[in-house]
Amino acid sequence: MIYELKKYGDPILREKSTEVEVIDEKIQEVLDNMVETMYETKGVGLAAPQIGLNKRMFVADWSGEGEALRKVINPVITPLTEELIDWEEGCLSVPGIYKKVERPKKVRIEYLNEKGENVVEELEGFPAIVVQHEFDHLDAILFVDRVSPMAKRMISKKLQALKKETLKNLTEE
Ligand SMILES: [Zn+2]
Fold this sequence. Notes:
Bound molecules: zinc ion
Shape: globular
């Protein structure tokens, strides 16, 4: 099943997500549908709030081909270096906007997978960027909040228009 994605301006993207308490069949099904939606929309990651569910989980695949697929539940991220890297980021919930964001180059991520097993990984470069971006969604942070002040000014009109469109669609529902 392909989910309809929540877009910039939708208040659900600005709500902090709560921990997943039980990993049952329902959660596993949602994760599978999120994976399907991520591939369908050509994304490298998709967080639960983006489908309107404020639960601390996301899916990611930085290979784009199934090889790096992760289903991540209740993640904890710790930076492993003070070194930052710039990456031009985009987001399925903020269509048409791509801007550079600075984030730690290397992180440790600890989470539960869809079987409830504890997983610890050290990621560097693009994979580290992807998990940090998705993790932010769980704390109601969007990448456009992290761009430079100059970039923020450049995209402010586009963001306002996007928000207006989202709110219009919400009231029409
Ligand atoms: Zn995103």
